[in-house]
Amino acid sequence: MSTDFQPVSGMDLPRFAGVPTFMRLPHVPPGHEKYAEVEIGIVGLPWDGGTTNRPGARHGPRALRDASTMIRAMNAATGVEPFVRRRCADLGDVGPNPADLMDTLERVTAYYTDLAAAGIRPLTAGGDHLSSLPILRALAKDRPLGMVHFDAHTDLYRGYFGGTKYTHGTPFRRAVEEGLLDPKRVVQIGIRGTAYDMEDRDFAKAHGIRVIPIEECVDRGWGDVMDEAMEIAGEGPTYVSYDIDFVDPAFAPGTGTPEIGGPNSLDAQRVVRRLAGLDIVGADVVEVSPPFDQGGATAWLGASILFELLCVMV
Amino acid sequence: MSTDFQPVSGMDLPRFAGVPTFMRLPHVPPGHEKYAEVEIGIVGLPWDGGTTNRPGARHGPRALRDASTMIRAMNAATGVEPFVRRRCADLGDVGPNPADLMDTLERVTAYYTDLAAAGIRPLTAGGDHLSSLPILRALAKDRPLGMVHFDAHTDLYRGYFGGTKYTHGTPFRRAVEEGLLDPKRVVQIGIRGTAYDMEDRDFAKAHGIRVIPIEECVDRGWGDVMDEAMEIAGEGPTYVSYDIDFVDPAFAPGTGTPEIGGPNSLDAQRVVRRLAGLDIVGADVVEVSPPFDQGGATAWLGASILFELLCVMV
Amino acid sequence: MSTDFQPVSGMDLPRFAGVPTFMRLPHVPPGHEKYAEVEIGIVGLPWDGGTTNRPGARHGPRALRDASTMIRAMNAATGVEPFVRRRCADLGDVGPNPADLMDTLERVTAYYTDLAAAGIRPLTAGGDHLSSLPILRALAKDRPLGMVHFDAHTDLYRGYFGGTKYTHGTPFRRAVEEGLLDPKRVVQIGIRGTAYDMEDRDFAKAHGIRVIPIEECVDRGWGDVMDEAMEIAGEGPTYVSYDIDFVDPAFAPGTGTPEIGGPNSLDAQRVVRRLAGLDIVGADVVEVSPPFDQGGATAWLGASILFELLCVMV
Amino acid sequence: MSTDFQPVSGMDLPRFAGVPTFMRLPHVPPGHEKYAEVEIGIVGLPWDGGTTNRPGARHGPRALRDASTMIRAMNAATGVEPFVRRRCADLGDVGPNPADLMDTLERVTAYYTDLAAAGIRPLTAGGDHLSSLPILRALAKDRPLGMVHFDAHTDLYRGYFGGTKYTHGTPFRRAVEEGLLDPKRVVQIGIRGTAYDMEDRDFAKAHGIRVIPIEECVDRGWGDVMDEAMEIAGEGPTYVSYDIDFVDPAFAPGTGTPEIGGPNSLDAQRVVRRLAGLDIVGADVVEVSPPFDQGGATAWLGASILFELLCVMV
Amino acid sequence: MSTDFQPVSGMDLPRFAGVPTFMRLPHVPPGHEKYAEVEIGIVGLPWDGGTTNRPGARHGPRALRDASTMIRAMNAATGVEPFVRRRCADLGDVGPNPADLMDTLERVTAYYTDLAAAGIRPLTAGGDHLSSLPILRALAKDRPLGMVHFDAHTDLYRGYFGGTKYTHGTPFRRAVEEGLLDPKRVVQIGIRGTAYDMEDRDFAKAHGIRVIPIEECVDRGWGDVMDEAMEIAGEGPTYVSYDIDFVDPAFAPGTGTPEIGGPNSLDAQRVVRRLAGLDIVGADVVEVSPPFDQGGATAWLGASILFELLCVMV
Amino acid sequence: MSTDFQPVSGMDLPRFAGVPTFMRLPHVPPGHEKYAEVEIGIVGLPWDGGTTNRPGARHGPRALRDASTMIRAMNAATGVEPFVRRRCADLGDVGPNPADLMDTLERVTAYYTDLAAAGIRPLTAGGDHLSSLPILRALAKDRPLGMVHFDAHTDLYRGYFGGTKYTHGTPFRRAVEEGLLDPKRVVQIGIRGTAYDMEDRDFAKAHGIRVIPIEECVDRGWGDVMDEAMEIAGEGPTYVSYDIDFVDPAFAPGTGTPEIGGPNSLDAQRVVRRLAGLDIVGADVVEVSPPFDQGGATAWLGASILFELLCVMV
Question: Which positions in this protein are listed as binding Mn(2+) (chains A, B, C, D, E, F) (predicted)?
Answer without folding.
Answer: 129, 151, 153, 155, 243, 245
